[in-house]
Design brief:
mainly alpha; 4 helices
Length: about 120
């Protein structure tokens, strides 16, 4: 018991033909068809056990450790920050920039892991 694909394709073609003036009517018809299908499934499978939800695939890079990327990015950013801070405020500013970069990297390395 599914909504026939041909009906949906015909409805989309009619929507394109009639233009945006009939969008609300098109949405109502599609919603009514889907509600009919849901009601039919619910009444047919009221005593059936629900199927487990399918597992989503892991995104590429979702479990990777980005420590090397952070270290390299920190080094790239440190060059202009060091030059700017040295020219504008001197040694204390350079120390501040480098301490901030070290704190950033160390806090990233010791963050709680989500496994």
């Amino acid at each position: 018991m599914t909504v026939p694909r041909e009906d949906l394709a015909a409805g989309l073609a009619a929507r394109r033909e009639f233009g945006p003036d009939y969008d609300a009517a098109f949405a109502d018809v599609i919603a009514a068809r889907i509600e009919e299908q849901i009601a039919a499934r619910m009444s047919a499978g009221a005593h059936a056990e629900p199927r487990p939800a399918p597992r989503l695939p892991r995104l590429r890079g979702a479990g990777r450790d980005h420590s090397l990327t952070l270290v390299l990015l920190s080094l790239v950013v440190s060059i202009p920050l060091t030059a700017i801070s040295a020219s504008l405020a001197g040694t204390p500013a350079v120390l501040f920039v480098w301490i901030a970069l070290v704190v950033l990297n160390v806090s990233y390395m010791h963050r709680p892991r989500r496994d």
